[in-house]
Structures are given as C-alpha cells and as structure tokens.
Amino acid sequence: MACLVSIRKALHRFRKHERGAIAVEFVLVAPIFFFLIFAILETAILYTIATVMEGEVALAARTIRTGQLQQEADPETAFRQILCSNLDNVLNCDNVIIDVRTFDDFGEMEFEDFVDDEGEASGNLFQAGTADDIVLVRIAYVYNIVTPYLAEILPPVGNDTVILYSGAAFKNEPFQNAI
C-alpha cells in the first residue's frame, strides 16, 4: 500500500511540474512557424523577380517596337544585353530563355511552348521583325526553390524548381528599316 501511495504522489508531482513546458511547445510549433516565415519570404522573392521580369521585358521590347534593335549588328545579343542590364540584380541572366516571334495577325497567334517540361529551351526563335510586324516577346526563368516542401504547393517543373514567365505582344511602329 505504501508503494501505491508513493507512486500516486510521484505522478501528482509530475503532473504539477510545469518546467520545460514552454520548450516542448516551442519544439512542436517552431517547425511550422519557420516554414511559414521562409515560405512567405521566398514567395515575396518570386513575386519580386516576376515583377522585375515584366518591367524589363517591356523596356527591351520597346527597342524592338521602335526599330532600334533591328539596326544592331547582332539583334539577339543586343536584346539579351538590354534585357539583362537590370535583371542581373535579381537573377542569373544566363538562365533566362528568350523567345521572340513575328505573326501576321494578333488573332492568329498560335505558338508552341518554348520551354520543355524540364525547364530547358525548346524550339525558341528570335525574329524581331520589320516595320508594322506583330511581335511576341516571351522570356522564362527557372527558379530553384530553397524552402523545403514549398515545391509541393507551387507547380513544380522538376526537382524543386518553378518556371516564371513574362511576355509582351505588340505591333512594330512604322519605322524606317536600317539604311
């Protein structure tokens, strides 16, 4: 009987003892908390990269629209340099995939994917066009996701990667072709 009473007293003391309870709660909550913090930060980085890509595509596409790019000796290299002048601040421009195509009519814009399922360039072209041509400029960037399990939420391409796209469609101005 004395043994039973001492076990009851020990269990009662154990239940009343609260030292370390905060540490246990932290261990249970911390992984979820840190995942949410890192997921929010990485999503913010993704949105920042996408926004910068949109702005840089608009600026680089303007050189095509006005005919300035067509006067360059190597328009494709000049376009990449213009595009990457500010993109290098937020991403590795060597991994940017560029596709520029011309069309006869906006309604007839049918085009193939220029990035395959693994995030590699596939069938991309560079056709800056001439005056009054309709041009579609598209770029893609394969972003490597750092936060664990975030790839499960986002549409992944391969091993923890997601593709960010940006583009612009416009009609070239009636510029004078290079003399």
Q: What attributes does this structure have?
A:
179 residues; single chain; alpha+beta
Architecture overview:
The chain is rod-shaped. The longest helix is centred in the N-terminal third of the chain and has 45 residues, at 21-65. Helix content is 43%, strand content 17%. It has one domain (2-171). The protein has 179 residues and is of the alpha+beta class. The chain is built from 4 helices and 3 strands; from the N terminus they run H-H-H-E-E-H-E. The protein has helices at residues 2-16, 21-65, 75-87, 150-153; strands spanning 96-103, 134-144, 161-171.
Would you spell out the secondary-structure blueprint of this structure?
Blueprint lengths: L1 H15 L4 H45 L9 H13 L8 E8 L30 E11 L5 H4 L7 E11 L8
Antiparallel strand pairs: 1-2, 2-3
Q: How big a fraction of the residues is strand?
A: 15-25%
Whole-angstrom Rg: 28 Å
Number of helices: 4
The total strand number stands at 3
Coarse morphology? rod-shaped
| Contiguous runs where pLDDT drops below 50 for at least 5 residues | none
